[in-house]
Amino acid sequence: MSGITYGMAASRAARLRCPRCGEGRLFRGLLTMYPHCSECGFVYQRDPGYFLGSTYINYGFTSLTMTVLYVVLHFGYGLSNQVLAGPLLTYCTVVPLIMFRYARAWWLAMDSFMDTTGFQEPRAAAPTPGDAHQQKS
Known about the structure:
With about 140 residues, the chain is mainly α. It has one domain (about 5-120). Helix content is about 55%, strand content about 0%. It is built from 4 helices and no strands. The longest helix is centred in the C-terminal third of the chain and has 34 residues, at about 80-115. It starts with 5 loop residues before the first helix and ends with a helix. The model is unreliable at about 125-135 (pLDDT under 50).
């Protein structure tokens, strides 16, 4: 067990904080993640391609909300497809950019909550070329 509840994991993801300690920031800019938590050392990038699953979260959220918007605006308010095309295209471009950070945070938090492998201990840093040379000597 990871020691965190579902509510804690969701709250930390919503605040874009480390899923382990809840203190360290996940992002240093709009789209750039820190490699690990500055507070507890938890490694965010677990493996190459680790965050591929977050694209499904982002895509699903954008598709679902855009579809609901279209149905409500077209069938509920009678707006034509010509009127809706521009705003919905803009929506489908802007929302994934806004949701990028939250989708990654949610993916990391839910993975940490459900799969506790490696959650308790920070991963050891990869050896540097200098370390390999020193071991051979």
